[in-house]
């Protein structure tokens, strides 16, 4: 039996619950929110569609109902408004996270925790500092969404399946993120050599700056047009959950606490990690070039600047 607790039933939390149900990943889902009526409504709406899905029990509850959960997903907090950066959300959502940590870890001390709320790297760091959980069971969704956006864009450039695109976004889930192009490839062909090595496809010249700008601004563009982002982040988080539950180790860019990797310490950001049913199995030390290491350190410094400017 796979039990998942979701804290927060806003657009992201409720969509994750819906996506989990449709994908048939969980056998039991409990949604928890300070707005109990909202949680009850979301659970009821999804539950009434379960006869056409893989059997799943979904209901609204309190923190005590998280007991026995394999995975706890935190989507609680104030949503980002149009024109607002993720980092501007920091203090409010840090305070909310600090209140929630002891309440939920009390009942689900053995769960893997996925932090999704923004600013995700700051909140993942907060979770490390305020919980007594092993580090490997604290996972920030980090740049897995940015990586999905990158791969979607590259697949459009090359007119090829997203599954053949192997490229990542590292660093902060935000403006200081970057793409380590030196390790990006299309079906093991280095991305900077694709045009030369696949001449029959008449591939366009790759505009690296345009693609990175597209990735960084995608969230803001969606928020400006429809008020919130929740479909892509939900699918991305459910991918992490599926990997945690499957027992098959998978590599992905999630936010974890750094301990000297690439010369970075005591901050959470995204690099490549192996994720399995025990949480973070290990980090993958991707061979970045000097310019990319400098960008990763700059991203770390950006996050440390926020950490030093707020009360954690």
Q: How large is the share of residues in beta strands? A: 15-25%
Number of strands: 12
Order of helices and strands: EHEHEEHEHEHEEEHHHEEEH
Mean pLDDT: 94
User: What fraction, in percent, of the residue positions are helical?
Assistant: 40-55%
Low-confidence stretches: none
Give the structural class: alpha/beta
Query: Main β-sheet: number of strands, strand sense, barrel status?
Result: 6 strands, parallel
Compute the CA-based radius of gyration.
19 Å
Shape: globular
Q: What is the first-to-last residue Cα distance?
A: 36 Å
Q: How many H/I helices?
A: 9
Strand order of the largest sheet: 3-2-1-4-5-6
Characterize the structure shown:
Helix 2 links the parallel strand 2 (28-32) and strand 3 (57-60). The strands form three sheets. This protein has a six-stranded parallel beta sheet, sandwiched between helices. Helix 1 runs parallel beside helix 2, helix 1 (11-23) packs across helix 8 (231-246) and helix 5 packs across helix 7 (208-226). The protein is globular, with a radius of gyration of 19 Å. The chain starts with a strand and ends with a helix. With 312 residues, the chain is an alpha/beta fold. It contains nine helices and twelve strands. It has helices at residues 11-23, 36-47, 90-105, 120-130, 144-158, 194-197, 208-226, 231-246, 290-309; strands at residues 3-7, 28-32, 57-60, 71-74, 112-115, 138-140, 165-166, 185-186, 189-190, 250-259, 265-276, 279-283.
